[in-house]
Amino acid sequence: MIGYLEGTLLKKEEDRILLLVNQIGYEVLLPSVVMSTLNTREIGETISLYIYYHQTERQPKPVLIGFNLENEKEFFQHFISVEAVGPLKAMQALSIPFSEIADAIENKDAAKLTQLKGIGSRTAQKIIATLEGKLEKFAQPHAKLNIAELPPDDITQPILDVLVKQLGHRHTDAKQMIAEAVKRKKSITTPEELFDEIYREGKKP
User: Fold this and answer.
1) Are 58 and 48 members of one domain?
2) What is each CA distance from 136 to 6, 40, 107, 132, in whole angstroms?
3) CATH no. for residue 106?
4) 56 or 123, higher pLDDT
5) pLDDT 10s digits, 93-113
6) How does DSSP assign 85-125, residue by residue?
7) CA distance 40 to 54
8) 63 shares its domain with 75
9) H/E element holding 27?
10) 66: phi then psi, degrees, rounded to nearest 5
11) Burial bucket for residue 196 (CB in 10 Å: 0-12, 13-18, 19+)
């Protein structure tokens, strides 16, 4: 299986390149957001890509999809875990920065996701349902939480579940509420104390 390629850029097309590696030319598909980063790269230059290798019984011809960074490939692998979003559909959809897509998912912004090529409202909802809470590391720097050192998961996770699943808060907002409560009261040692601190703050006029 191919996971990384470094070689000479032989050809650029709309959605793919031809990369010469050890006298073998590899056709590599690129999401448009990745292809745009090669606009200034000239034929004959050396480039390197992390590769997602796709081959199945239904798709016996190997398909290589390239990314500039390993975490972009990781994001892609999360994205294609959604039902009805295969590698080729995902490649066509990724037309804006990965961080913006991650923000939209974490903020349940289905309208933003429907702006992606081939993503309708039903698929957007599936994407959010499947990936919300899993993509914070890919979010834009300004959207990342400034979270204090938190108690163990066995204290925070039950409260996170209550805030999101029962009270309807967004996952990122719920984590911020927990972080702020812990910052205010560092002596919290149980889920009940954590919830009381969040609720107490919410009851303030």
Assistant:
1) yes
2) 29, 30, 10, 9
3) 1.10.150.20
4) 123
5) 999 999 899 999 988 999 999
6) --HHHHHHH--S-HHHHHHHHHTT-HHHHTTSTT--HHHHH
7) 28
8) no
9) strand 24-29
10) -105, 150
11) middle
Q: Which pTM was predicted?
A: 0.67
Nearest CA-CA partner of 30 in 9, 44, 45, 58: 9
CA distance 3 to 199: 48
Average pLDDT for residues 199-205, to the nearest whole number?
57
Task: Give the number of domains in the chain.
Answer: 3
β-strand partners of 161 = none
Tell me: do 62 and 93 sit in the same domain.
no
What CATH number should be reported for the domain holding residue 57? 2.40.50.140
> Residues with Cβ < 8 Å from 60, sequence gap 6 or more?
none
Domain that holds residue 11: 1-68
Q: Are residues 127 and 164 in the same domain?
A: no
Q: How far apart are CA 80 and CA 87, in angstroms?
A: 6
What six digits make up the tokens of 197?
Answer: 């601190």
Q: How far apart are CA 133 and CA 1, in angstroms?
A: 30
**DSSP-based helix, strand, coil % in the chain, nearest 5:** 45, 15, 35
Give tens-digit pLDDT for 163-178.
Answer: 877 888 776 677 778 8
**Cβ pair 24, 16 in contact under 8 A:** no
Closest by CA position to 180, among listed 150, 154, 159: 150
